[in-house]
Amino acid sequence: MSARRHQEVAALLDRAVAWASARPDVAGLLLVGSWAADAAREDSDVDRVLLTDDPSLYDAEALVGERVLGTFVTTRRWGPVTEWRFVRESGLEVELCVGHRDWAGTSPVDPGTRRVVSDGARSLYDPRGLIAAVIDACAGQV
To answer: Which has fewest Cβ within 10 Å: 47, 48, 72, 74?
Structure first.
């Protein structure tokens, strides 16, 4: 893994946290997948889950305006979340999945949520403690 890629991802995550913390609807932001599990390779994408009180605030127009994400590539629906995929000039792929804060529910944890969290998850912004609770629940600590 190159130092340049590490720096790019660190800067991207710092900007994402600053952006999320300025939005009152954001209930949490977590990094998932290989970057969260410390298993990323040079070609690994950056996967994040944004939990919000109102997922309808996030559509193609709103997210494409966030130029830091890169060039919009595609969107897909994965059950309760919508994936927005972007590619940056460097070739780094950035995925932002947006879902309702209930995605992190722990009574019980949804099987899809458990799979995502168990594959690697790290809290980036957790003002309500939802992410800590679901990570603990998936680790069998709750």
So the answer is: 74
**Cis peptide upstream of residue 108 (ω within 30 degrees of 0):** yes
In the three-class reduction of DSSP (H, G, I as helix; E, B as strand; rest coil), residue 60 is classed as: helix
The pTM is what?
0.92
Place of tokens 């994408």: 45
Residue 91 identity (one-letter amino acid): G
Strands 46-52 and 26-32: antiparallel
Mean pLDDT of 129-138: 95
CA dihedral 7, 103, 140, 37 (to 10 degrees): -20
- Which value, to the nearest 10 degrees, does the dihedral of the CA atoms of residues 70, 71, 72, 78 take? -40
Contact 50, 29 (CB under 8 A): yes
**What kind and span of H or E run contains 125?**
strand 121-125
H or E stretch including 98? strand 93-100
- Dig out the tokens for 5 from the structure: 């890629």
Angle in degrees, CA 65, 34, 118, rounded to 5: 105
